[in-house]
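Project outcomes to date are best conveyed with an example. Our students and postdoctoral researchers have been running inverse folding experiments weekly, and each run begins with a structure described purely in tokens. The record below, which covers 294 residues, was selected by the lab manager from last quarter's runs and is presented without edits.
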């Protein structure tokens, strides 16, 4: 999603959000499947008979696969090509125009130089809700400014702080102490491992638009099997940091910021820096059109 947003901003394309209604009811079944008559709708004298399904129902294990296969066929029929490395992304090029679709279950993000025709074709094939220009997608909030689009996760952060009772905590200026290195801390008291794993998992999703907390989150992720007091303190420090930076986000600038379509990457690593297994710690950042995408 991040790279697609950057490309849209570079060429100043609009981003649209479509939602398919009752998506899991659209997929035809390949397997022979029977269901009993629903309570209250039994046919008198045929109570022991069953229905044979032609399409999926919510609750069936086959429903997600059937829906994905259906929409995949529809998009390919209208000349879209599936991305070979990201199966939820489809690209259509014709007469110098380009349209990109990002698919996540029943949500479609559409952008490109000629999106109107594609949107109308999708509405003819499926019953859809046109949510207009993209403002919220998969927990990401997108706000349009004069210079570009900013991607936030303010709502997600608010829910995160409330869930872990950190909404009244004191803030800090950085996500981890400078030059601090954690080990297994086996002599310290244990903490609630379930809560610790929930914090780490929640923070990992936040890394989507907070690349500068990736290192701190990756460090505490190594201790999910046996978290100790110091590990929990480090995890809560990251929560304290994001509380003080809740309005921070990633800026995707409008227009061409670089003359060529280059994907620029920077990487570095220390040498045997891990205190536990003496492995090296590496880091990287990739930028496209002067915006961080990974």
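After processing, the design step wrote out the following sequence:
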């Amino acid at each position: 999603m991040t790279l697609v947003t950057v490309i849209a901003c570079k060429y100043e394309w609009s981003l649209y959000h479509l939602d398919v209604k009752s998506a899991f009811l659209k997929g035809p079944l390949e397997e022979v499947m029977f269901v009993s008559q629903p309570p209250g709708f039994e046919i008198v004298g045929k109570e022991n008979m069953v229905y044979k399904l032609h399409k999926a129902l919510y609750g069936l294990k086959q429903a997600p696969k059937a829906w994905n296969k259906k929409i995949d066929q529809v998009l390919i029929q209208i000349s879209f090509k599936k991305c070979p490395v990201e199966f939820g992304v489809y690209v259509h090029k014709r007469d110098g125009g380009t349209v990109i679709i990002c698919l996540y279950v029943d949500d479609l993000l559409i952008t490109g130089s000629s999106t109107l025709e594609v949107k109308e074709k999708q509405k003819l094939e499926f019953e859809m809700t046109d949510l207009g220009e993209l403002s919220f997608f998969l927990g990401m909030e997108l706000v349009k400014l004069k210079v570009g689009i900013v991607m936030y996760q303010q709502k997600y952060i608010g829910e995160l702080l409330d869930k872990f009772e950190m909404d009244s905590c004191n803030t800090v200026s950085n996500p981890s102490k400078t030059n601090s290195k954690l080990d297994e801390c086996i002599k310290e008291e244990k903490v609630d491992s379930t809560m610790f794993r929930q914090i780490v998992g929640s923070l990992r999703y936040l890394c989507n638009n907070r690349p500068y907390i990736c290192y701190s989150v990756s460090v505490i992720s190594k201790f999910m099997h046996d978290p100790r007091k110091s590990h929990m303190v480090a995890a809560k420090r990251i929560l304290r940091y994001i509380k003080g930076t809740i309005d921070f986000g990633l800026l995707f600038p409008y227009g061409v910021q670089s003359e060529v379509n280059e994907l620029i990457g920077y990487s570095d690593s220390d040498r045997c820096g891990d205190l536990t297994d003496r492995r090296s710690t590496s880091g990287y950042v990739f930028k496209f059109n002067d915006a961080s995408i990974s």
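The two ends are 11 Å apart (CA to CA). The chain has two domains: 2-144, 154-292. The training component of this project remains on track.
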